[in-house]
UniProtKB/TrEMBL annotation:
Keyword set, alphabetical order: Oxidoreductase
Protein name: Retinol dehydrogenase 12
InterPro entries (alphabetical): NAD(P)-bd_dom_sf, SDR_fam
GO molecular function: oxidoreductase activity
Highest taxon listed in the record's lineage: Eukaryota
SUPFAM superfamilies (alphabetical): NAD(P)-binding Rossmann-fold domains (SSF51735)
Organism: Mycena indigotica
């Protein structure tokens, strides 16, 4: 599928469908990036659905505490609300987060992986990868894969299907990339995330980065969905559309008036965008497998980009999957254990 400018305008002008409702009593929900915007609004929706336990995973203690108070004020939901700290730009922080949950011994029914940053220049993390790539396409998969045994166990013990929702974007349709990276012999993520690539390509590498991180979200979701049973863990990816959130807060001053105007004319509110996260997490309760591996846009499964479905896209998906697992195995040896026990073959 191609998404042209006119169809995108029509999409942004439509009235979003109402939020899907569900009874989450007794269930545990984790929302990454819950301190503001889409993640915070999704947390408010989950609280209103009476989640048995709701964990807001945030990078900042102070902003996380403020988010907790906002959820409480909006819902009167308090005793089962928890703030956990995790910095997705730091593999050590991510491992501590998942180890803590693993030791906690509790169930996990819904994981919403809502995490993205959009820096204006090449900013490597202390782990050696470009920041937005590590946050969206390495740390997010690390959390998902480490949580997979808990999600699977929860499903088996309760006769349910656990859910994983990865927040992507319709901008993956417009991702532009250097074909040499995708058709060459060098590893894709290591190339895109390394200093040498950014030194060679300058500012153009960063300008193209956000859509690419969202394209990689789609690839990861599809690759994972092909390897897990939808009767236990349903995996999908969603786009909230263009929303009035803080993601563009780091844009150059010269671009802010244009973005403000686009948001004013076309942008969904963060609450409206969060409805897509909720849709991926609780829609189709009788047949959740209908959403397995799907890209969800406008509260319905939608065909991803032509590149994703092309022969090169399918090849890239497999190469990226292998590279992500290889990188993460070096970061955390437990990833290999999960892969061997739960992802032994492609379904």
């Amino acid at each position: 599928m191609k998404l042209g400018f006119t169809p995108w305008i029509r999409f942004q002008l439509q009235t979003p469908a109402p939020v899907v409702e569900a009874d989450l009593a007794g269930k545990t929900v984790v929302v990454l990036g819950a301190n503001t915007g889409l993640g915070l609004e999704a947390a408010i929706h989950f609280a209103r659905m009476n989640a048995g336990r709701l964990i807001l995973a945030c990078r900042s203690q102070s902003r996380g505490e403020a988010a907790i108070e906002k959820v409480k004020a909006a819902t009167q939901f308090g005793n089962k609300l928890e703030l956990w700290i995790v910095d997705l730009a730091d593999f050590g922080s991510v491992k501590s987060f998942v180890n803590k949950f693993e030791q906690d011994g509790g169930r996990l029914d819904i994981l919403v992986a809502n995490a993205a940053v959009s820096p204006l220049s090449y900013q490597p993390t202390k782990d050696g990868f470009e920041t937005s790539l590590q946050v969206a396409d390495l740390s997010t998969p690390l959390i998902v894969l480490r949580f997979l045994p808990i999600l699977d166990k929860t499903a088996r013990e309760n006769g349910t299907a656990s859910r994983v929702v990865v927040v992507s974007s319709e901008v993956h349709y417009w991702a532009s990339f250097d074909k040499k990276v995708w058709t060459g012999s060098d590893p894709i993520i290591r190339t895109l995330g390394g200093a040498a690539y950014h030194q060679e390509n300058g500012s153009s590498a960063i300008r193209a980065r956000y859509p690419i991180t969202k394209l990689l979200n789609v690839f990861f979701t599809r690759a994972l969905a092909a390897r897990v049973s939808p009767h236990r863990v349903v995996v999908n990816t969603v786009t909230p559309g263009m929303c009035k959130t803080e993601l563009a807060r780091d844009l150059p001053v010269i671009l802010r008036p244009l973005v403000w105007l686009m948001h004013a004319l076309l942008g969904f509110t963060a609450e409206q965008g969060s409805r897509q996260l909720i849709f991926g997490a609780v829609a189709e309760p009788a047949h959740p497998e209908k959403l397995h591996g799907q890209f969800i846009m406008g509260s319905k499964p939608t065909e991803p980009s032509d590149f994703v479905l092309s022969d090169l896209g399918k090849k890239s998906e497999e190469l990226l999957w292998e590279e992500v697992v290889e990188i993460l195995d070096k970061v955390d040896p437990k990833v290999k254990q999960v892969a061997e026990e739960y992802l032994a073959r492609k379904i």
